[in-house]
Structure formats: C-alpha cells, structure tokens
Amino acid sequence: MNHPMVSSARSRAVALLLTVAVAGCSSAQATPQTIYVTPSPVATESAAATPEPTPTPTPTPTAEPSAPASASPSASATPSATPTPAATSSGASACTATPDLKEFLVKSASLLSFDVYCAVLPSTWWMQNIAYKLPNGGMLTIAYKNASGGQIEVDEGNWCPSLAPGCWTSVSNLGAANFGDRSGSLHVVSSSPLMYGLWVSPGTTHDYHMLGAGMTQARFAAWAAAMVKVPKP
After folding, report:
1. 143, 136, 127, 134: which is closest to 30 by C-alpha?
2. For residues 4, 167, 209 and 127, what is the CA-based torsion angle, rounded to 10 degrees?
3. Which residue from 79, 88, 196, 213 lies 20 to 30 Å from 36 (Cα-Cα)?
4. Amino acid 18: pLDDT
C-alpha cells in the first residue's frame, strides 16, 4: 500500500500545525501494550509448639512475604520529567519519549529494514504520536510538540515513494545540513507560517524528511543534527 502524498508544501505545513494525527497512515497503528503483574505475598504458616517431654525441634526459617510491587502505567504522551528508561527500551534511552514509547521505538527498529532515528529535545518537548507500516519497504512517522506550540514531524523510510511536489517542494534551499549522522539539505518549506524542512535521500525507500515550526532556523538545524539512531536489537 503506497503512502498518500500531500498536495503541496503549504498543505503539509498546515497539517503539521493544526493536527496531531500521524501523516499519511491509512492502516491501523501498531500500539504497544504494557502488562503489569503484581505478585501477591505468600502466606506462611507457623505451627504451634505442643508441649512434649521430648526436646523441641529447631524451627526452620521461612522467607518474609515481600511487599507487592506497584506500578503507575501512563499510556498518554504528556510533558513530564525525563523518565528512567526500562531495560527493554535501553536502546532508545536518549530519545525524547515516555518509557512505553521508547519500547515502541525499539520494536519499530527491529521490524523495519531501514535505520530508525529519534529526536533528542529539551525537557519542554514530548513525543506526541508514533506509527509505522511494514509494506512497500516500510515507513515510520513521529510527531513531537512543546507547550509553546512548536511542532516537529519526522518521516522515515518509504513514506512518499516518489519525487512528487507535494512531498518535497520548498520555498527556498538553505544549503547542506545534517540529519543525525547523515548528510541532507535544509529548506524553507513555508513562509507563512514559517516552517523548515530537511531532506535526506528523497524519493528512495530509505529517505528521511523532517519538518519544524515554531522555532528558529538555527534550533531546527541543531535538533536535526542531534537525531540519534535507535540500535536494532
């Protein structure tokens, strides 16, 4: 199934600013599910000693019941202090995301054929949405947001399998820039509202497409260069 292409750079900008939905995914999103199991304390019995004229046997020690573990799962991606990543999400420990979404990133990296990248943003930012698809080379879309209205969207893989204008047209080319450890080109995608974009290998099955609004050019370029690769398990 091909990923739908956006009609124009301006419509991409408006879509990023006015919606938090994941761009271009018509199929159901894979949603991680965390199951928490709380062990119950094991009751122990203490036999009453019966007075006998014979010597009292030495008692056998028993383990004290452990306090039940407590957990407060949070499925929503809301602003919070940087959490300590779970062991299963250690490969995405640097990523801006809640522990469950870090696990989802690790799962995505294990299933998709291309390298998966995530953003490392200040504590005022959070991951708002993430989704992937496997057909046609696979694709991954991640959306980030902050409390000031800033937004970033990252599309990876075969998200737009052509060089259609709706996917890649920009107002101006600002020159070379980095997307993590990859080289790309920096663009002004829209002047009203002001939106920047960064392209790597456009139109291929392993391209990277990053959009940002509500920030300066310098900050957008710096955050694009700070993208980190999620190791494949």
Report:
1. 134
2. -50
3. 79
4. 35
